Amino acid sequence: MAGGSILWGSIAASTSVPTAPVLAAAGQAAALMLAFRRRLPQETANDLAPSNPWADPVVFVQPADDRGPVLIHIEYLVEPARLPDFITALRDFRSSRQRDGAIRWDVWEDVAEPGRIAESFVVESWVENQRQHACATHADQLDQQLLQAVQSAIGRPSCSICRGRHDRPGARGTGRPAARPYS
After folding, report:
1. Domain extent listing, the chain
2. Running along the chain, 183 residues long, what does each successive block of 10 average in pLDDT?
3. Sheet containing 158-163: which strands, arranged edge to edge?
4. Taking the mean position of all CA atoms in its chain, how far away is CA 67?
5. Overall pTM > 0.70
6. Pair 155, 62: CB distance under 8 Å
7. CATH class of the domain defined by 70-163
8. Between the CA of residue 180 and those of 76, 167, 171, 174, what are the distances in Å?
């Protein structure tokens, strides 16, 4: 915004004030003509219909919707020979996690057990985690199936969901004002 102000102010100062809007209109017309000539690609290969592939998480106590952050930790067992392909597929899946609201995403490898890979990502709140479940598409489900195909036949991925603990008075995410200690 500031850059545009500087640009159009400079143009008005070097030409005249009435000339600057005329040049802006000409630029808009040129952009419109370019837009008709160069269309954005229509990607039809991805099925973006909702698929809801995950079961609802099992919880002991239903957290408040605004409670957060929430850490999702998924462990995979991968044959060491298939590890490079699996890591590549998992890194490709990162963008869908971030599109669905992940604010942090990482891949970890267990140093004691080769082939034990952990994917972890953080979302803002419990309701954001629930929204992720609802936003999963058929294209995401195909990516998940690709991960499972590369994963070892030893077992299915295990998933745990952890919420941030903010039991301290005034801690971030409690939704309540700081309590004052008794004096």
Report:
1. 8-34, 70-163
2. 82 87 89 78 61 62 75 88 86 83 90 90 86 73 72 71 68 43 36
3. 104-109, 116-123, 70-77, 158-163
4. 18
5. no
6. no
7. alpha beta
8. 45, 14, 12, 15
